[in-house]
UniProtKB/TrEMBL annotation:
Residues 132-243 form the HTH araC/xylS-type domain. Pfam families: HTH_18, SnoaL_2. Keywords: DNA-binding, Transcription, Transcription regulation. This is DUF4440 domain-containing protein. The keyword RNA-binding does not apply. GO terms for molecular function: DNA-binding transcription factor activity; sequence-specific DNA binding. It comes from Phytopseudomonas dryadis.
Amino acid sequence: MRYHQAWQARDLDALMALYHPQVEYNDFFQNRRIDPQALRDYLAASMPAGREALQTYTDRLRVDGDTALLQYQVTLRGGSGLVSFRACEALTVRDGLIWRVNEYASLVREPAGASTRVEGGRLALSRLGLSARQLGMLADDLQQYFLQSRPYLDPHLDLQQVAVATGYTRNQISFFLNQVLGQTFYRYLNQLRLDHLLAGLRPGDAARPVEELAQVAGFKSLSTFYRCFHERTGTSPKAYLECLEL
């Protein structure tokens, strides 16, 4: 199917050529209708160039008369199990062009193999201004940003700075952290700081002051550092460092 091939190839021109100039595009995930004049920008924002596909098709193409049904899933790995957006698109085709698209999506959390629909965040989702595909991109963009730039090493990093650096709004970032990763913004930063510290510790670090280790990892508060360290390791920084010497 040319529609599927255009998406897989991220060929925006080929995709736009499949739509009727006055196509009716309904995104029920956001409760909005995309104006034909804005459709190209809408689709472009859903096509992350240069990456592996963020979505997988979950069923074969089904055709009934002039309507085709596509089903796919965008999966996000969070801090507790998996979160996925399960979506389907009903395409009405006439004279070789797509006249109407009805796109539906729902957020599903799958802890330990059990699938449960996330109802509490449904209203918040509709207000984010992002489609299901774009939400998948947000997750990927944030994770790549924190992994590559390591902004958490700045003890004064705040949500506004992350929003400016990534191009997303504070509400969009907060939703991802709260609903997908199950963490607050600052708790997430502290976990990243601790990951960074533990990955770099060496036996010789036992002689370094604990305050220095906390500061290098980006912790602004020593008490917060001690609490996070104990929650992760079950012991104090000093005891942990002494074990490295053994």
